[in-house]
Amino acid sequence: MSHYITLPLSGLEEPLSDMEQTVQDIAHRFAVDVLRPASARIDGMSAGEFIAQDSPLWNILRQAAGLGLSVKAMQELEPLERERILLIAAEELAWGDGGLAGMVLVSQMPGLFSALAGNTAMVDYCDGKLGCWGITEPDHGSDSLDADGSIAAATGSYGRPNCVARIEGDRIIVNGQKSAWVSGATVAQVCALYCHLEEGGKTRPGVSLIVPLDAPGVSRGKPLEKIGLRGLNQGEIYFDNVEVPLSHLLVGPEGYAEFVHDTLAEANVHVANMAIGLARAAFEHAHTYAHERRQGGQAIIRHQSVQYRLFHMYRKVEAARALVRRVATYNA
Predict the structure, then answer these.
(1) I want to staple 239 with a disulfide (CB 3.0 to 4.6 A). Which of 7, 31, 174, 206 is the partner?
(2) pTM of the entire structure?
(3) What are phi and psi of 242, to 5 degrees?
């Protein structure tokens, strides 16, 4: 009989509800049966091969759509229950493959941000479409996230933005580009675009809108070649007098800064949560190896220094998960 206890996938967290346990089981099985086998193949592909018609990416996305985690489906749940379900499922997906988990989650962002803005028409419009989030810019990087300029250097200037929109009657006209690290950009069908508003030759933050990426004037850059997270497609988006109906507007200048903060609060929790899935997978690999590798006539798990290091790996995973779920509860 073993002297060790077997912990559930969520470690030392409080027990899951029946619904949460079902979601976790389904997501974990998807990670085991679909994501991990595809991950090894995708890691050897070029960025172009990854998005080709015969890539396993498309079958993965089709199967992921059947998990029931769409924004529209999640809106039927209470806010706290919705947050917990998404975190539990996404941790398992990231445990399978961080890049592919990112692709699945980022595809939902236009619908998610539409829901945050209270625009149910855009939630419906984005449902079933692959999405991306266009906020960072090539000349400004994460400075684009500083919607109210509160973290700018006292003597600094962000300069002219790379992407601007102007409103003309019942249309929004978009010009410029977004950075090469827009996740899902070269395959997405819709973009949650955040950019400056141009009025009278001057620009200011900002507007958020849903842009159909098959609109005239939209073009894409080449998919970005990366060292890691090769299962997460990234690339540039260019806009040349792209016209979007005014009904696609999520928020204008008056509420833009607050909306950026709200979307960052939501997105950052999920990025941190995916890191937990990756960290848990790394711990499990190390734990398994420590039982297999022998040194000094015994498995290295019997060495006190190895036990110490493994324990602190586990402790950090548990602490990170506890923090992320507490933040998500606060946000809900």
Answers:
(1) 174
(2) 0.93
(3) -80, 125
Structural tokens at position 150: 């509160």
> Residue 189 sits in a domain of what CATH number?
2.40.110.10
- The domain total for the chain is 1
Residue range of the domain that includes 182: 130-254
Per residue in 142-159, pLDDT tens? 777 788 878 788 887 788
Phi-psi region of 141 (alpha: psi -120 to 50; beta: other; left: phi over 0): left
Q: Is 173 within a domain?
A: yes
Question: From CA 54, how far away is CA 193, in angstroms rounded?
Answer: 29
Give me the residue label for tokens 């149910």: 120
Q: What is the pLDDT of residues 46-69, one digit of tens each?
A: 999 999 999 999 999 999 999 999
Residue 283 lies in a domain: no
Residue 172 lies inside a defined structural domain of this protein: yes
Q: Determine, yes or no, domain membership for 279.
A: no
Q: Report the relative pairing of strands 171-183 and 234-245 from DSSP bridges.
A: antiparallel
